């Protein structure tokens, strides 16, 4: 009997199942992943309260000099950063496509009487408004966009920020993207998880796409019925010079780099850095 390796097993599925984007806007998926985003014992899909408090303190005290402003939190998830920043007197607007995350963010803001507004929208396609002192996009989300979309998004964001305002990006380093594609393929059996409330087999593999200069993560969800779902997440690679030139060409006047905090136990916690672009 011929033995089949994990790589052969995954490659066989890859030939027959088209890859889809992670279904962030799906109500069931957003409900399931919210559990991980709020789990105080891990940083798989979010960050612990202590890590968020440290990041929020850096933003308010160091970047803003302790002076409250209007803040837009793009891809805000359950609003944990916005909630923390609002406690310092900042006025926050969070935008995300996840229905469960937005519902949670609104609930907490209402319960604590925080000056926060949360919108369930795709920030790529919606009107962001004007006169924000700070716009932020964290957790490496910027790297999930192609270079073309990233350029379009920055052109949109720069018009949202007031003069002397700033954009905060938490992005993957050049080496961080390479580290993603060097991960070993793996598999695990889950009784339930972000992709299903019922048991499933989860396979993952990683590669580097030289044509697009991206790391690609392929996820395979195999249900007991034999149904296979294939999801793909891409991470665009930039050097520090690439980031700087992209931001300057988008209309920002200066660009500052800060080391990441190494906050969390997620797969690329140590591969993130902070970029602040001032208008």
Which tags fit this structure?
8 helices, 279 residues, alpha/beta, Rossmann fold, 11 strands, globular
Detailed description of the structure:
The protein is α/β, with parallel strands linked by helices and 279 residues long. It folds into two domains: 6-22 and 177-235, no CATH class; 29-173 and 236-278, 3-Layer(aba) Sandwich (Rossmann fold), CATH 3.40.50.150. It contains eight helices and eleven strands. α3 packs across α4. The mean pLDDT is 91.
In the CATH hierarchy, what is the architecture of the largest domain at level 2?
3-Layer(aba) Sandwich
- CATH topology description of the largest domain: Rossmann fold
What is the H/E order?
Answer: HHHEHEHEEHEHEEEEHEE
What does the largest sheet look like? 7 strands, mixed
Write down the overall geometry. Answer: globular
Total strands: 11
Mean pLDDT metric: 91
Distance between the termini: 65 Å
Strand portion? 25-35%
Number of spatially distinct domains: 2
Low-confidence stretches: none
Strands across the major sheet, in which order?
3-2-1-4-5-11-10
Task: Give a short overview.
With about 280 residues, the protein is α/β, with parallel strands linked by helices.
Question: Which helices and strands occur, and which strands form pairs?
Answer:
Blueprint: H1 6-14, H2 27-37, H3 49-63, E1 70-74, H4 80-86, E2 91-96, H5 99-111, E3 116-120, E4 132-137, H6 147-158, E5 161-172, H7 174-181, E6 186-190, E7 200-209, E8 214-222, E9 228-236, H8 240-249, E10 254-259, E11 272-278
Parallel strand pairs: 1-2, 1-4, 2-3, 4-5
Antiparallel strand pairs: 5-11, 6-7, 7-8, 8-9, 10-11
Helix pairs in contact: 3-4
């Amino acid at each position: 009997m011929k033995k089949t390796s994990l790589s052969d097993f995954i490659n066989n599925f890859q030939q027959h199942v088209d890859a889809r984007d992670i279904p962030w806007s799906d109500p069931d998926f957003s409900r399931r992943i919210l559990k991980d985003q709020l789990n105080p014992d891990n940083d798989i899909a979010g960050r612990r309260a202590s890590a968020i408090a440290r990041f929020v303190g850096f933003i308010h005290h160091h970047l803003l000099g302790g002076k409250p402003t209007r803040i837009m939190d793009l891809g805000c998830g359950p609003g944990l950063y916005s909630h923390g920043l609002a406690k310092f007197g900042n006025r926050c607007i969070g935008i995300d496509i996840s229905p469960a995350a937005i519902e949670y963010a609104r609930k907490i803001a209402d319960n604590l009487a925080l000056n926060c507004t949360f919108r369930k929208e795709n920030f790529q396609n919606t009107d962001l408004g004007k006169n924000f002192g700070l716009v932020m996009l964290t957790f490496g989300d910027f790297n999930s966009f192609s270079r073309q979309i990233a350029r379009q998004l920055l052109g949109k964001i720069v018009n949202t920020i007031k003069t002397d305002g700033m954009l905060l990006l938490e992005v993957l380093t050049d080496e961080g993207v390479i580290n993603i594609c060097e991960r070993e393929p793996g598999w695990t059996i889950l009784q339930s998880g972000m992709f299903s409330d019922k048991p499933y087999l989860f396979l993952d593999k990683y590669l580097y796409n030289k044509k697009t200069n991206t790391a690609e993560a392929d996820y395979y969800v195999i249900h007991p019925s034999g149904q296979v779902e294939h999801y793909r997440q891409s991470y665009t690679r930039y050097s520090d010079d690439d980031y700087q030139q992209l931001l300057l060409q988008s209309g920002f006047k200066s660009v500052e780099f800060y080391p990441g905090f190494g906050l969390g136990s997620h797969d690329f916690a140590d591969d993130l850095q902070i970029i602040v672009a001032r208008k």
